[in-house]
Every structure is written in C-alpha cells, then in structure tokens.
Amino acid sequence: MREEYDFSAARKNPYAAQLKKQITIRLDEESITYFKSISEEVGIPYQSLINLYLRDCAASKRKLNLKWK
Which long-range CB contacts under 8 A does 26-34 form with residues at least 24 apart? Predict the structure, then answer.
C-alpha cells in the first residue's frame, strides 16, 4: 500500500443521492422498541428494518383502514 493517496481528481458517486435520503420522523416509543427487538433477533439495524417494512408496504400498495370518529 502507498503511504499517501491523491484524491484531488476524484469525483463523487453520481448515484449516492439516489440511495437514501435522511429525514426526521417522529415515532412512538412502542414502535421503536418493537423494531429494535426485531433488529436484535435478525442482526439488522432497526432503521433498516423500518425502511424495509415501509418499502414493502409501498410495493404492495398496502393502505391503512382509518376511520375517524
């Protein structure tokens, strides 16, 4: 290995922005605890599990049946 590398001509990954987007979302403590417990069982970070679940809901066009009183 070299002692130093020259990254002056390097360019950013053009696909990096499409990979993930950081957002702020407020979740109740029960939901976070649920996904954290699953994450310990399967060895996947809980944020990734939440993302996988939401992606599955979107792919299957799953909708909640909400009724307001």
Answer: none
Is 47 inside any structural domain? Answer: yes
Structure confidence at residue 60 (pLDDT): 96
Structural domain boundaries, residue 32:
28-60
d(CA 51, CA 57): 10
How long is the chain? 69
Residue type, 62: R
For the chain, the first-to-last Cα distance in angstroms comes to 67
What pLDDT digit, counting tens, does each position of 13-58 carry? Answer: 888 777 888 899 999 999 999 999 999 999 999 999 999 999 999 9
Nearest to 54 by CA among 29, 17, 20: 20
- Say how far apart CA 29 and CA 24 lie, in whole Å: 15
